[in-house]
Amino acid sequence: MAKNFVVYVNENKKEALEILDLVRKKSPDFAYKETSNPSSASLAFSIGGDGTVLRAARDLAGLGIPLVHINTGTLGFLGSDYGDMDSYVSRIFKGNFHTEDRMMIRAVYNDKEYIALNDIVIKNGSCARVIELGLEIDGESVADIKGDGVIISTPTGSTAYSLAAGGPVSEPSLELIILTPLNPHSLSFRPILLDLERIINVKILSSGEGVILTADGQVSTPLDPSGEILVSIYESRLKLAQSDRSFFSVLSDKMGWGT
Questions:
Q1: How many CB atoms neighbour CB 78 within 10 A?
Q2: Catalytic site residues?
Q3: Rounded to the nearest 5°, which phi and psi values hold at 86?
Q4: Which domain holds residue 157?
Q5: How many domains does the chain contain in total?
């Protein structure tokens, strides 16, 4: 039975298209399939920046397909170190790589599910105004948050939007949820680390419109006044190919810490 692979690529980047051509040429035992049907694949590539790999992760959620990300973007926390591209792609097709299970997160609003690798964000939309959100954890009222909103992220997402908002950096292997307020109108409300089994209920307390939900900054939906969003860990993990470098080596390099 033929093995299939899919490729998610940023077609606006010349380098990404050149790597795509190489990947196709180096796959004699694999058949290339369109990303519209990833469930039939046994391997997936994403070639581009963080946006490309986040799109691929949501598409592959629950399928158990290994994802190899080749970064052609700027920051690129999720890409492997590949050295010589030709030999790296050959090794991938021979199965000479290892993966790490990455936690994903889900939000449910109006019976629709939103899945993310990095984060679920509930925030003000186009208008720069303070909104008010009610926060419950496992049914217990914890806080009313006044500010720009809240970021609920995975450990993988700790180096993304949450970090920019003052959240902590987490090793991706840790089993936790990070809740980071966006510009809270209170100096006492700080980021919270939660057990991964917690169920988070965010209630819209603001009157009027203009509050939105986003998944990985790519999928968004407007929220109704008095709406409720349930956020929890997604039941399946993403199998993401890893480099031989440690998390701290990559972190120091990407953050420019000078070690």
A1: 29
A2: 50
A3: -60, -50
A4: 105-233
A5: 2
Strands (E), the chain: 3-9, 30-33, 43-48, 67-71, 98-102, 105-109, 112-116, 119-124, 131-137, 140-147, 149-153, 176-182, 192-195, 200-204, 211-215, 219-223, 228-233, 238-242
Q: What is the CATH number of the domain that holds 200?
A: 2.60.200.30
pTM equals 0.91
Asked whether 114 and 101 are in contact (CB, 8 A), the reply is no
Q: Are residues 192 and 251 both part of a single domain?
A: no
- Residue 141 burial class via C-beta count within 10 angstroms: exposed 0-12, middle 13-18, buried 19 and up: exposed
Residues in the chain, overall count: 259
Give residue for tokens 């899919």: 6
Q: List pLDDT tens digits, range 90-136.
A: 888 888 888 999 999 999 999 999 999 999 999 998 777 899 999 99
Q: What is the CA radius of gyration of the chain?
A: 19
What is the maximal distance between C-alpha atoms in the chain?
Answer: 60
pLDDT tens, position by position, 171-217: 999 999 999 999 998 888 999 999 999 999 999 998 767 899 999 99
> What secondary structure letter does DSSP report for 125?
-
Same domain, 113 and 97: no
